[in-house]
């Protein structure tokens, strides 16, 4: 579930949840009860949701249902903006505890603790899992054999260079992979050369602008002051400079925030970007 509409009200959330389950189950050949009408959710969203789930789960028989709430931080934002009440947390906790066929996957870029105290207190039983990078062999397979009909080939050293640039980060691997396919098609070739990789990187910076900008604006600090300090630190690192040892409290908080979110890392008391491709993007920004 990723639609912005589902966080506009509790009725929209419940209706969106039901519609997502119905549509995805139908695509798998499982026909569930027809979703209730919108006005029914508006009158009593959680009762209508549970009544429908009771019928739907009977149709699933012994099958399990995994619900992925992607970018779940948006729920926290909707609660802070009073679009949704804390009753939603009560309902989600109730579903987790009492519906054995339902499994929930909350995926996002922040921990429950970072989103706010309500999340941690309501979802004590939730098990956090940090997912960062693929193993090198998994990343190579993604580049070399993503599809049975894949015919693209790489000059010697190209694959290893892509792994180095992306640190096997799934999104960036797919971003560069797609950009290399685009470049191969533009040049009517099935072989990626260093020149085409260079062009693919530039194309990736354009296509991946939202991702890189999100790092720049959302993961350089928490407050406006920290964000500015964090951006300044990234610009220094991109130029090969180290942060000031006698940095102020704001800069220290920004640095720790970026360490916690794997934007930068510390090795032997020296700081650098975790991902080279992100460093290259920031360096371009510094030179712009």
What does the average pLDDT come to?
91
H/I helix tally: 15
Distance linking N and C termini: 37 Å
What's the domain count?
Answer: 3
| SSE string | HHHEHHEHHHEHHEHHHHEEH
Question: In what range is the share of β-strand residues?
Answer: 5-15%
| Biggest sheet: strand arrangement | 1-2
Radius of gyration: 23 Å
Q: Unreliable runs, pLDDT <50, ≥5 residues?
A: none
The main pleated sheet reads as:
2 strands, parallel
* Proportion of helical residues: 55-70%
Shape annotation? globular
Instruction: State the secondary-structure class.
Output: mainly alpha
Number of strands: 6
InterPro entries: P-loop_NTPase
Summary tags:
58% helix; Arc Repressor Mutant, subunit A; 288 residues; Helicase, Ruva Protein, domain 3; 3 domains; mainly alpha; single chain; two-stranded parallel sheet; 15 helices
What does this structure look like?
There is one protein chain. This protein is mostly helical. The chain has 3 domains: 4-122, no CATH class; 136-202, Helicase, Ruva Protein, domain 3 (Orthogonal Bundle); 211-287, Arc Repressor Mutant, subunit A. Helix content is 58%, strand content 8%. It is built from 15 helices and 6 strands. The strands form 3 sheets. The protein has a two-stranded parallel ribbon with strand order 1-2. The chain has a two-stranded parallel ribbon with strand order 3-4. It has a two-stranded antiparallel sheet with strand order 5-6. The longest helix has 18 residues, at 10-27. The protein is globular, with a radius of gyration of 23 Å.
């Amino acid at each position: 579930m990723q639609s912005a509409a589902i966080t506009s009200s509790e009725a929209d959330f419940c209706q969106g949840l039901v519609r997502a389950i119905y549509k995805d189950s139908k695509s798998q050949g499982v026909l569930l009860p027809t979703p209730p009408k919108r006005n029914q959710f508006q009158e009593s969203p959680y009762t209508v949701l549970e009544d429908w789930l009771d019928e739907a789960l009977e149709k699933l028989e012994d099958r399990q249902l995994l619900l992925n709430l992607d970018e779940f931080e948006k729920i926290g934002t909707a609660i802070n903006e009073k679009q949704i009440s804390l009753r939603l947390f009560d309902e989600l906790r109730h579903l987790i505890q009492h519906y054995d066929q339902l499994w929930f996957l909350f995926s996002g870029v922040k921990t429950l603790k970072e989103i706010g105290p309500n999340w941690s207190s309501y979802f004590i039983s939730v098990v956090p899992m940090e997912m960062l990078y693929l193993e090198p062999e998994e990343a190579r397979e993604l580049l070399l054999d993503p599809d049975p009909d894949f015919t693209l080939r790489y000059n010697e050293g190209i694959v290893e260079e892509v792994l180095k640039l992306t640190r096997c980060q799934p999104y960036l691997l797919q971003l560069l992979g797609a950009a290399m396919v685009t470049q191969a098609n533009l040049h009517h070739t099935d072989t990626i050369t260093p020149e085409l990789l260079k062009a693919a990187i530039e194309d990736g910076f354009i296509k991946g602008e939202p991702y890189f900008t999100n790092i720049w604006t959302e993961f350089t600090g928490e407050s406006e002051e920290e964000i500015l300090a964090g951006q300044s630190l990234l610009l220094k690192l991109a130029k090969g400079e180290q942060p000031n040892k006698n940095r102020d409290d704001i800069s220290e908080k920004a640095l720790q925030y970026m360490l916690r979110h794997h934007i930068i890392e510390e090795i032997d008391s020296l700081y650098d970007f975790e991902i080279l491709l992100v460093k290259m993007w920031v360096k371009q920004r510094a030179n712009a």
